[in-house]
């Protein structure tokens, strides 16, 4: 695994000493360069929390990933660059289901392998929302681009443009056009 290829993928041109400024740059570039996507799950491709596999998928093939993949690989980058990092558990609550808290965190340091059971659950459980749709989303300098099974939403300076579609081919063409991801049907 090559740190320089990772940094090229997120358009960071200079390695600096660990600092809040460099961390902020890395986080911002990561969010603007690598999409959150769960495209493998509905198609039943197995996601394994193995750093080499995550690196190959996200860095070498130009894909994105879902939380365990993105956070695990970003953790590797930060520790490789000399940052002192603890991997922590967090959960996002869905406000539509009536939870009053939006986020819940623990302060117990974890290893990537500690998330294996939840990663399997998210892929296999019929109650997992990751199994019911395909989603790819990325931050932009002025908003966000989100592609789901049947719509493309572009948010720019607070204004949303939503394009609905029903054609599966349209999904794959938009995935390629906006995210540079080519998948076989």
End-to-end span in angstroms? 29 Å
Largest sheet features: 5 strands, antiparallel
- Portion of residues in beta strands equals 15-25%
Mean pLDDT: 90
Low-confidence stretches: none
Q: What is the N-to-C order of secondary-structure elements (H for helix, E for strand)?
A: HHEHHEEHEEEEH
* Shape field: globular
Task: Note the total helix count.
Answer: 6
Helix content: 25-40%
Please state the CA-atom Rg, rounded to the nearest Å.
Answer: 17 Å
Total beta-strand segments: 7
Class by alpha and beta content: alpha+beta
Which properties best describe this structure?
two-stranded antiparallel sheet, 185 residues, five-stranded antiparallel beta sheet, alpha+beta, globular
Please tell me about this protein's structure.
With 185 residues, the protein is an alpha+beta fold. The chain has six helices and seven strands. Helix 3 crosses helix 4. A five-stranded antiparallel sheet has the order 1-4-5-6-7. Strands 2-3 form a two-stranded antiparallel ribbon.
Task: Briefly characterize the structure.
By secondary structure, the chain is an alpha+beta fold. 36% of the residues lie in helices and 17% in strands.
Task: Please outline the helices and strands.
Blueprint: H1 3-9, H2 20-33, E1 36-37, H3 51-60, H4 67-80, E2 90-92, E3 103-105, H5 116-124, E4 135-140, E5 143-148, E6 151-156, E7 159-164, H6 168-179
Antiparallel strand pairs: 1-4, 2-3, 4-5, 5-6, 6-7
């Amino acid at each position: 695994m090559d740190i320089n290829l990772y940094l090229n993928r997120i358009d960071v041109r200079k390695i600096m000493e660990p600092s809040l400024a460099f961390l902020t740059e890395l986080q911002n570039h990561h969010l603007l360069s690598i999409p959150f996507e769960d495209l493998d799950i509905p198609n039943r491709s197995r996601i394994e929390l193995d750093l080499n596999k995550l690196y190959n998928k996200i860095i070498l093939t130009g894909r994105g990933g879902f939380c365990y993949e993105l956070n695990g690989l970003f953790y590797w980058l930060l520790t490789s660059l000399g940052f002192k990092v603890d991997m922590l558990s967090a959960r996002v609550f869905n406000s539509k289901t009536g939870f009053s808290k939006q986020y819940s965190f623990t302060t117990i340091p974890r290893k990537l392998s500690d998330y294996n059971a939840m990663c399997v659950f998210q892929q296999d459980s019929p109650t997992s929302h990751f199994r019911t749709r395909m989603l790819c989303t990325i931050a932009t300098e002025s908003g966000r681009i989100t592609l789901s099974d049947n719509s493309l939403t572009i948010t720019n300076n607070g204004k949303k443009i939503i394009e609905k579609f029903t054609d599966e081919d349209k999904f794959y063409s938009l995935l390629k056009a906006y995210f540079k991801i080519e998948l076989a049907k």
